[in-house]
Design goal:
This protein is mainly α. It contains 15 helices and two strands.
């Protein structure tokens, strides 16, 4: 006959299945996001009956596309142990350069609309590529702090965008550009959403199935150990910053198509928001930890919170205060989670 003591010895103590332990396990694995999400849904649902409607949630999903793309790039550099404050500049330069190129080329080839658009897209991606290359070289080759490097590039890029436009939006873009990339649909699904879904799928494969994804995690976990194991850490860091800028550039293209003009202020707060989305999604600021699907949900959460604050008629200035406070809280909780992860090892 099996005694109660033997049963507990075989299956573990009852505390293993207690709600507190289950909550701790969820917190360690997924971070603070599930808890924040539940709290936000409860608060905003009580504030307005329109919040949980299908129309509103669909609108949130559509609006979150741009932040999702930027956050996926931010995730790469955070996993490698850095971060990128220049993603807003990459968006602004992409918008301004692509719009300027389309206007200039359209004057020469007025009948070749898609040729004009293609050159504009290439020019926009090229501008963002320069941002990524400069960041990557500074951080990986010269060992400059990611904070200093990306902050300096952010300032230079923002000034360049303002110099090119004089602070005036660039309009009169080809109708087909905005009609397709901003408002077009494929099989009933908005084009920006299709592009975001494809990007998410590619990023998941990269981070979970390809060698470069493993290298990102290895460099962020311990750069010296990664180097000793044969990983070219400089190339890995370089690729992370270039990819981050290109993903931000993709968001810049879609935003430019959405507003149908090249503008320098499109990426104003996206740097803060993308970092907040990643940290809330469980991406560690110490590097080496983060998952694609969680980051997507984190970006959705940030846009959901902004939507909820609009529903509650909270002013834009106070929204900045609340988002900043949310980021600080998420960072503090991330430190607690990191200690809990170390304690389990």
């Amino acid at each position: 006959m099996i005694t109660r003591a033997e049963t507990i010895a075989r299956t573990g103590s009852r505390a293993d299945f207690s709600p507190v332990r289950l909550v701790k396990q969820l917190f360690v694995r997924a971070g603070v996001l599930p808890f924040f999400l539940v709290i936000a849904v409860i608060i905003f649902s009580l504030a307005s009956s329109q919040f949980l409607t299908l129309q509103n949630l669909t609108n949130v999903a559509r609006q979150s596309v741009y932040l999702v793309l930027v956050s996926l790039g931010q995730m790469l550099v955070l996993i490698t142990g850095g971060f990128d404050l220049s993603v807003g500049t990459a968006i602004a330069l992409t918008s301004v350069v692509s719009a300027s190129t389309m206007i200039a080329v359209a004057a020469l080839f007025p009948d070749l609309v898609w040729f004009v658009i293609a050159l504009g897209l290439l020019a926009g991606f090229g501008a963002a590529l320069i941002v990524g290359v400069v960041n990557g070289i500074g951080v990986s080759v010269f060992g400059v702090s990611p904070f200093i490097m990306t902050l300096g590039v952010q300032s230079v890029g923002a000034g360049t965008a303002l110099f090119l436009t004089g602070g005036v939006p660039i309009g009169n873009l080809p109708y087909e550009f905005g009609n397709f990339f901003g408002f077009g649909r494929v099989a009933g699904v908005p084009v920006p959403v299709v592009i975001a879904l494809l990007t998410i799928a590619v990023m998941w494969v990269v981070m979970n199935r390809l060698r470069i994804g493993t290298q990102f995690y290895a460099v962020g976990g311990n750069v010296k150990a990664a180097h000793l194991s044969g990983i070219n850490t400089k190339v890995t860091l370089f690729v992370a910053y270039v990819a981050c800028s290109l993903l931000a550039s993709l968001a810049g293209i879609l935003l430019t198509a959405r507003v149908e003009s090249g503008e320098t202020n499109l990426g104003g707060t996206v740097g803060l928001e993308s970092i907040a989305a990643c940290v809330i999604a469980g991406v560690s600021l110490r590097g080496g930890i983060g998952r694609v699907e969680n980051v997507v949900l984190g970006a959705f959460f940030i846009v959901l919170v902004q939507n909820g604050m609009n529903v509650m008629q909270i002013g834009s200035y106070m929204q900045m205060v609340l988002l900043g406070s949310l980021l600080i809280l998420a960072v503090i909780i991330d430190q607690l989670r990191y200690r809990m992860i170390l304690a389990r090892r």
